[in-house]
Design brief:
This protein has 93 residues and is of the alpha+beta class. The protein has a single domain, classed as Beta-grasp domain (Ubiquitin-like (UB roll)), CATH 3.10.20.30. Helix content is 23%, strand content 24%.
């Protein structure tokens, strides 16, 4: 199945592109997706996933416009055609 991912800020630099379409197996999770992307872009998973395999607190990952933390976090299962956005913390005032 295919999942579209859009990266912002340092995640775009680590992924090497702003947008990717990633093929993952049925039943894949958000964690699986970032690990698959990490095969070609090894810096990216460490920016998004902590050592425990969960999302880093300061990172926002949304699936079809909904924060994945409201579901299962990094264990959220993906569906074909899902659209993910990975964004760093936003600072400003």
């Amino acid at each position: 199945m295919n999942v579209e991912v859009t990266f912002f800020g340092p995640f775009q630099e680590a992924a090497g592109e702003k947008e990717l379409t990633v093929s993952v197996a049925a039943g894949a999770t958000v964690r699986d997706l970032f690990e698959a992307i990490g095969e070609d872009n090894p810096e990216l998973p460490e920016k998004v996933l902590g050592e425990d395999g969960e999302l880093v607190d300061s990172v926002t990952v949304s699936r079809n416009g909904r924060d994945v933390r409201l579901d299962e976090g990094a264990a959220t299962e993906l569906d074909d055609g899902d659209v993910l956005r990975a964004a760093p913390p936003v600072h400003g005032g």
